[in-house]
Amino acid sequence: MLIFRCYIRDRLKLNFRDFSLKRLVLACGLGLCATAGHSDNNYFNQPAAQFSVPDIGAGVGLIDQQKEQMIGEKVYRQVQKQMPVIQNPWLEDQLLSIFSQILSQTKLQQPIGLMVINDPQINAFAVPGGLFALNAGLINSARNTDEVAGVMAHEIAHVTQRHYSRSQETFKGQGLLALAGILVGALVASQADGDAGAAVMMGSQAALLDQQLTYSRNQEREADRIGMQYMYAAGYSPHSMADFFEVMHRSTSRLSFMPDFWLTHPLTTERMSEARLRANQLPAVKRNLNDQDFEIIKWYTRVLSRQTTEQQLNLMVQRNDFPGQLALTAYQLQQGDFQAAQVALDQAKKHNKMHPLQVLFQTDIYLGQNQLDNALKSISSAARIMPENRALNYKYAETLIRAKQPDQARTIVQRFLNSNTRDVSGWRLMQLAANAAPDSSIKAANVLRYRAEVEYWSGYEETAIKSLIHAQRISKGNQSLSATIGQRLKQMQQTRQFKI
């Protein structure tokens, strides 16, 4: 198992060495995700490389793709409930852009979700069905986009080759529930106190996992090889996969203990050498030594995850560093100091660069000062010019709601929900918009049904069902709305029966 395997660590000092099932947490996923956009025209001038990717059909494995999606969606909801997920549309979409570039080199369909976990550990995980997540610490430790792309490509390869499903012969019959229970149990254990964590990890499912949820050495090598091909085809330097191996190897040398992951699946010099050798065999890709787009993502992530200080950011601002100026603006907004945020943002504007974060931050400053007219002027044109930009349009919708224009806000948000029904941020805006609408016979029902979606995708399935039952009860006078709510209620009740 390679360094990118999920190893969800108990942040409340749960001592894994007290349990024979410690590999439970180490192996709870397949692996990972991505970062910022990467555009290098040199890619189109590269010599063609011959790839050899095994074609794994949908019928391979005892857990078929439909069941894998059920697992992924179930775990997605539980991750939202149990883990400190960073909800930030701009950051999510930056990561998704690179993820999509690598995914386009595969035959995988749209993933279930891409999440950022607020954890300083260098880690990432994925779940069968296409749920990918990475820790903020991974982004904060990477030196460029290509290194994060290498992590993502390796983990995508595990999913495309369906390594988990192909090796789980003993899960026949009960595999779906067993796997979902194991994954969620590991997440719960990582958030619980020692006693609760121990209770969750004990049991027959955990014992089953301890024996089976591991990749073979051949599968790891296959993920290395195919992942490197994916990232190269997407325009990223294959050397960056080997580079980040070394970053992670050095990070463990500074610890006073060796994580269980490293004890059971060490990153050997042989593995690092093999990765470097493979990279040398591919045509060269020009590296972006001044990856300012990634620096913006990294420092913004450090602010969101509270892994930086005002002193660090001020030092960057003193050097007239554009990413540092944006990050300091975000930091001051986080502190609620709108005046200081405006000073930092004005410095960033002197670079004469039009960056979406500048628009988002300026709008937040105006909203924080209750200057609604200025906020609308700041965000409206940018959102209309870039209708595909979720972050800008969600901020526009938020501003419209504050300005008592909820119907227009709902129209904007609904476009994005049509393509991704799991978008918790979108459902929250829909709930706010419904609550801000003028009083009517259906207002309460709409508020409840949108609240139910927020609850459902946040992992509170039973509460969501109760909200929908209440919404259906008070919407009986509107046949169309009642039917819509009833249909969604039936869907939620069916998925609720898929118990962990």
From TrEMBL:
Record note on cofactor: Binds 1 zinc ion per subunit.
Cofactor(s) needed: Zn(2+)
Signal peptide as annotated in the record: none
Keyword Transmembrane helix: no
EC number of this enzyme: 3.4.-.-
Location in the cell: Periplasm
Catalytic site positions: E155, D224 (proton donor)
Pfam family, one: TPR_19
Record: residues binding Zn(2+): H154, H158, E220
Any one of the GO BP annotations: proteolysis involved in protein catabolic process
Domain Peptidase M48, first and last residues per copy: 88-276
One cellular component (GO) term of this entry: periplasmic space
Matches recorded under SUPFAM superfamilies: TPR-like
GO MF, one annotated term: zinc ion binding
Entry similarity comment: Belongs to the peptidase M48 family. BepA subfamily.
PANTHER family assigned to the protein according to its UniProt record, in alphabetical order: METALLOENDOPEPTIDASE OMA1, METALLOENDOPEPTIDASE OMA1, MITOCHONDRIAL
Role, per record: Functions as both a chaperone and a metalloprotease. Maintains the integrity of the outer membrane by promoting either the assembly or the elimination of outer membrane proteins, depending on their folding state.
Protein name (record): Putative beta-barrel assembly-enhancing protease
Organism: Acinetobacter variabilis
